[in-house]
Design a protein that fits this description.
456 residues; alpha+beta; seven-stranded antiparallel sheet; 16 helices; 23 strands
Length: 456
């Protein structure tokens, strides 16, 4: 679908003995399915059982395709971690599905990871020199081996995580389960989200607040950038020794990745998208009859544009949510057909109308070109495209699959050329300055727009 995709979503729970967590983790992963559709997995242990006994079930496909009710019933225990994956490093193969579960001389662990470790190759080379081999191409496995290597030298799993994290460069949110503990760690820049919640006496760590609420939990707080939290039967312990003043939260969580009902680092995703739409209307106003958004991340921005401009907001598309993963179709013809299967236009809404079309981004331009063609065939007399992000010019190295600059249409075409290429009447992007007001001044990473990378 010519969209960017997040790498992963993570979800973990620590409950009192006797409480089973597998079914809730499954529901939490369903709520995070938008963050990754290639593979899913859950690892479970029981603090009342034999120490070191971790049970894992994972596979390729959607969460509902990987797990049956029988699978969930067999995953017995009161601590667990779960994962949904979209690969940006490592291939889309079963070997790279998470969690990564490992046995080692001092015990066992299971790890799930969202993000990208940009110095993974160097760490892997060092590990190979220490005779730790048998790798897939996943940087998550590199991270797991690094923690195991440190665990052999330290007294606790949380100290091993801290020592390993001190070596990492990149954006990451990780959950590490040992037989008696659940540990969460967030990169010092806060590039990747991680939030703490609670359901009764059960603690939850997840990529988004929406996932915690989906299992009936309440939100406690965001994990701080650079924070390590350790959950045991004695409660929660926090270590902020990796924290720093410089922050760089990923702006695309607010533009596109996160669910619209999530709140990240104190900022409502829905409110941020409304503000983006309002900013677009101020900078790129136009005479039109209706404002429409491309489902689903373009809808809130379209609502904001309508509120600011006074042009009526309308629902012009039906989105078929049951088509599947059209973005990995291998040929242009199949991808084009997938767009038509996933989206259809309500002819009576757009026929004879001047339309303002809001979407979150233009990557290569292929999908936008098809959507505009669909609107014109449905009778739209004008199509004015407004994008709730600045033009993509540079790749991302922190776990978002922004492709190389050569594949980004804005990196080698002007706005006027892109407008002509996609068949729009006019085209306007969100300004870089508007991103900061969109999130109320939250420190953000804008490297894919301005080449200013916070981690090198």
């Amino acid at each position: 679908m010519d969209k960017l995709h997040e790498e992963c979503g993570v979800f973990g729970m620590y409950a009192n003995e006797g409480i089973e967590v597998a079914h809730d983790i499954y529901c939490g992963l369903i709520a995070l399915q938008h963050r990754g559709q290639e593979s899913a997995g859950i690892s479970i242990t029981d603090t009342s059982g034999p120490k070191g006994n971790i049970t894992t079930k994972k596979g390729m496909g959607l969460v509902s395709e990987v797990f049956s009710s029988t699978d969930l019933d067999s995953l017995t225990g009161n601590i667990g971690v779960g994962h949904v994956r979209y690969s940006t490093t490592g291939g889309s193969v079963p070997e790279n599905a998470q969690p990564i579960a490992m046995n080692y001389v001092k015990g066992s662990l299971a790890l799930v990871h969202n993000g990208n470790i940009i110095n993974a190759a160097q760490l892997k080379e060092q590990q190979l020199l220490r005779a730790q081999a048998h790798y897939t191409s996943s940087d998550t496995e590199v991270l797991a081996y690094e923690i195991v290597s440190e665990r052999v030298k330290t007294d606790t799993i949380e100290n091993a995580v801290k020592n390993a994290a001190n070596k990492l460069k990149g954006g990451y949110a990780c959950l590490i389960m040992s037989p008696r503990k659940l540990v969460g760690v967030r990169d010092p820049f806060g590039l990747k989200p991680l939030v703490l919640g609670k359901k009764g006496e059960t603690y939850i760590l997840a990529s988004e607040t929406a996932a915690i609420r989906s299992v009936g939990g309440s939100i406690i707080r965001d994990i701080e950038p650079g924070e390590i939290v350790t959950i045991t039967d004695k409660g929660i312990k926090s270590d902020l020794s990796l924290s720093q003043d410089k922050r760089a939260h990923c702006i695309f969580e607010y533009i596109y990745f996160a669910r619209v009902d999530s709140v990240m680092d104190g900022i409502s995703v829905h409110d941020a998208r409304i503000k983006a739409g309002r900013a677009l209307a101020k900078r790129h106003g136009v005479d039109a009859d209706i404002v429409v958004g491309v489902p689903s991340s373009g809808l809130a921005a379209a609502e904001g544009y309508a509120l600011e401009s006074g042009i009526p907001f309308a629902l012009a598309f039906h989105k078929n949510s049951y088509v599947g993963r059209s973005f990995i179709k291998p040929t242009d013809a199949e991808r084009k057909n997938a767009v038509h299967m996933k989206l259809s236009v309500l002819d009576n809404v757009v026929n004879g109308k001047r339309v303002v079309l809001i979407d979150d981004s233009i990557v290569r331009g292929n999908t936008m070109r098809q959507i505009i063609d669909m609107l014109r065939k449905a009778g739209a007399v004008e199509v004015h495209v407004r994008i709730s992000s600045p033009p993509f010019l540079y790749p991302c190295y922190y776990g978002t699959d922004v492709p190389s600059s050569g594949q980004l249409i804005a990196s080698h075409h002007s706005t006027e050329e892109i407008c002509s290429s996609i068949g729009a009447d006019t085209l306007g992007y969100l300004a870089l300055d508007d991103l900061h007001s969109m999130v109320d001044g939250l420190p953000i990473c804008t490297a894919c727009f301005d080449n200013e990378y916070p981690v090198v």
